[in-house]
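User: Can you help me understand a structure? I only have the sequence.
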Amino acid sequence: MYDVIIIGAGISGLTSAIYLKRYGLNVLLLERNVPGGVLNTIPLIENYPGIESVDGATIAYNAYTHAKNLGIEVKKCEVLELVNNKERKEIITNKGNLSAKYVVIATGRIPRRLGIENEDKLIGKGISYCATCDGALYKDRDVIVVGGGNSALIEAKYLSDICKSVTILVRNNTLRADKIYIEQLNNNIKILYNKQINKLNIKNDELTSVTLKDGKIIDTSCVFVFIGNDPSTNFINKLNLTDNNGYIIVDNNMKTKIDGIYAVGDVINKELYQIVTAESDGAIAAYNIKKEFTN
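Assistant: Let's start by predicting it. Here is the structure, written out as tokens:
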């Protein structure tokens, strides 16, 4: 029986863990993938106060090291369901069940997919959702980036330093990205507006080209998809804690409508999704848990 179990070791979950441990609570951190979450996929961050330029993996590594140095226990597992049992919360995982008085949900978001035939089949063989992870596999080759927001342009800029050419496909007639990212685009990046992929063309189980909805065929070795994200909340479907889009609803204290269950970071319904706001969410949740715990 832990005081607090935090589900997700992204920056908001790590922040909660660090604050709670320093408050003297018995904390367990659960993570199914790599600690640091989406930060590990961001090649360049230039809006983090106090650090003019840094890659996401560095922030993730430093936060995780901070947590480990405090003696915070980390367990790698997948959470299958969160059960509310009044005085305690039961967490059912693929490696057994766990219990805690409080739970902090910090599971973040997962990349939205194109939703077309053969997409799943080509993951790792021509479809990617992380340029930092897979960009080096396509050195000196032609690639496509799908999306028109900040993430798409940041990843396109990163890929342009590795790949022969980068073609950005934007589904409407304008980019949604901030001006600073648009101005940083290299000469080997081409933008095509009002374009959507209709078909992924395969040869020998690998992607060779895409067919657009207007019939145009573009040769490519990989399609990098950055069209948004969806909250990772399947394991709480029975608790009725989310809005119609799957985001968890919390109050100003990061508390859900169920006593003892908090949520932080990209998984909650809020206006601004940034590293600094995720860290703030984590600190606020920890502070309010500490207040409840000591009352």
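Now, to help you interpret it: The domain at 2-110+229-294 is CATH 3.50.50.60 (FAD/NAD(P)-binding domain). The chain is about 20% helix and 30% strand. Let me know which part you'd like to focus on.
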